[in-house]
């Protein structure tokens, strides 16, 4: 099971495409991108995770299915579901799969850039929590 205290260097797992140039600023947060749900679940078992960000952009990234798998493994780790799709069905699925937060991605930039912005914001939030 995952430990959600911020005692160690905070760790974010992001299920989605790794944006270029994300590592421009050194952070006190370890961010790891994974491109498949299988890789996501493997990384979850390696060491504690403080936050998981799941992109929902079918068919390449099935965020809802990834969240369901995470919840079977660990019901306590905070999970953010990120998507450009904002409709009742997705909202109901997010609630049913116990998403901690659901975030709409900006539509005026690429999915990679919007995901990058979300990861940066989440990293800054975790840094404040650890301080």
Automatic annotation (TrEMBL):
The family database entries (InterPro entries) matched by this protein are listed as: CheY-like_superfamily
Q: Which Gene3D superfamilies match?
A: 3.40.50.2300
What are this entry's molecular-function GO terms? kinase activity
What SUPFAM superfamilies does the record tag this protein with? Answer: CheY-like
Going by the UniProt record, its keywords in alphabetical order are: Kinase, Transferase
- The name on file for this protein is Putative light and redox sensing histidine kinase
């Amino acid at each position: 099971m995952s430990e959600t205290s911020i005692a160690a260097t905070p760790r974010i797992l992001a299920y989605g495409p790794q944006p270029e140039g994300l590592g421009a600023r050194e952070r006190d947060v370890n961010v790891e991108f994974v491109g498949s749900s299988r890789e996501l679940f493997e990384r979850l078992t390696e060491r504690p995770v403080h936050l998981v960000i799941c992109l929902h952009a079918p068919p390449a990234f099935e965020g809802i299915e990834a969240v369901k798998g995470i919840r079977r493994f660990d019901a306590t780790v905070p999970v953010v579901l990120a998507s450009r799709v904002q409709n009742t069905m997705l909202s109901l699925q997010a609630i049913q799969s116990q998403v901690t937060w659901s975030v709409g991605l900006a539509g005026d930039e690429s999915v990679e850039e919007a995901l990058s912005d979300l990861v940066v914001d989440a990293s800054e939030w975790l840094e404040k929590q650890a301080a």
